Amino acid sequence: MRELWDWGILKPIKLHRIINLFRIHASFYLSLLLKKSRVWGVPYILTIEPTNRCNLRCPQCATGAGMLKRRVCDLNYEHYKKIIDEMGRSLWYLILYNQGEPFLHRDLLAMIRYAKKYRIYVITSTNGHFLGDDHLCEDLVHSDLDKIIISLEGADEASYESYRRGGDFHRVIDGIKHLTDARKRLKRKNPRIIIQSLVTRGNEHELGEINKLVSSLGADKLIFKTIQIIDSNGAEKYIPLTKKFRRYETEGADLQLKNLLKPCKRLWTSTTILSNGEVVPCCFDKHGRFTFGMIERQQTVTSIWRSIPYEQFRTKSIKNRRGIDICNNCSQGQKIYIQKALNISLQTDPDRDGHGHVSEKFKSR
């Protein structure tokens, strides 16, 4: 995640947060040594899902593709405040997105402002379709949000809408401009604006053009990210032809992550709260299969964090992480951000011929 790092993340530094951080990391390495979970402290990174609703139908997104196996709902704002009140003193980093489009939650700005009362670093992510309102953009700047990620998968309408189904390329571009203009008008540096582009077969040929476009919009950074595949049926339409841009190796009809699974520190440093109040291990439990407790049932995050089922899950992850199905499509330990993407020659890719076409070897997979 170093691609998303900036110096602003040091602002929440306080002695009790530093102590908690060291306790967490010490317990992680002790757990690896003992092959049994030990956890000291509480999570200093928290992912909270404001909603699992979305206005788009992206084909490799559980929500967009209609594959999400849990009820559609928004997080109760009072429950959200309860979470922040409990965790705010130790919490360092708050991720206000998961499945769904956060700006569909009517209280998103209030959520941001409430977390900032505790001097927490707050980041959110959006498809950019709700940033066309000048008043909303000014309110967003005034909220003290630290960072916003805006998805942009193309340099033109055709390539963008080949993946962002139901999306409007020009509306997103206008939204980015509205936000950068609001920030300039109010003479503020935050939120830092990160444009994120998933590299797909539909846009891998125009990464340079995307770079030029983003450079003209006033955003702070452009990052290219490998696409996650959740449905292998028809996945060849989205997996880039260039090996450098792929997250997976192919074995027959199967897709395998390029790198071997490593011990997952996330189970010690962070946790995820879904829009229905359920606490799950991480963002890769998209369907809420491994639920350890529920905030709506008056449970605290800390009591769930230290519960026997959670400890058993951590121990299992140490002993046999590959045996946990949600871990087999996880980005932990993976290089999901593409480095120096624009300097790569497509003709030198092993899966392409001298004319930049995909080889028969890949076609037959």
Report a brief summary of the structure.
The chain has 365 residues and is of the alpha/beta class. The chain has eleven helices and eleven strands. The strands form two sheets. It has a nine-stranded mixed β-sheet. A two-stranded antiparallel sheet has the order 7-8.
List its traits.
365 residues, alpha/beta, nine-stranded mixed beta sheet, two-stranded antiparallel sheet, 11 helices, 13% strand, disordered C terminus
Descriptive notes:
- It is a single chain.
- Residues 340-365 have low confidence and may be disordered.
- Helix content is 29%, strand content 13%.
- The two termini are 31 Å apart.
- A 9-stranded mixed sheet has the order 6-5-4-3-2-1-9-10-11.
- The relative contact order is 0.13.
- The chain has 11 helices and 11 strands.
- The protein is of the alpha/beta class.
Q: How are the SSEs ordered, and which strands pair?
A:
Elements: H1 15-34, E1 45-48, H2 77-87, E2 93-95, H3 108-116, E3 121-126, H4 134-142, E4 147-151, H5 157-161, H6 169-185, E5 192-199, H7 207-215, E6 221-226, E7 248-251, E8 254-257, H8 266-269, E9 270-273, E10 278-280, E11 293-294, H9 301-305, H10 308-320, H11 360-363
Parallel strand pairs: 1-2, 1-9, 2-3, 3-4, 4-5, 5-6
Antiparallel strand pairs: 7-8, 9-10, 10-11
Helix pairs in contact: 4-6
Strand percentage, roughly? 5-15%
- What is the H/E string? HEHEHEHEHHEHEEEHEEEHHH
Radius of gyration: 21 Å
Largest sheet: 9 strands, mixed
Helix residue percentage = 25-40%
Extract low-pLDDT stretches: 340-365
- In which order are the strands of the major sheet placed? 6-5-4-3-2-1-9-10-11
General form: globular
Structural class designation? alpha/beta
Number of strands: 11
- End-to-end separation: 31 Å
Overall average pLDDT:
89
Helices, by number, come to 11
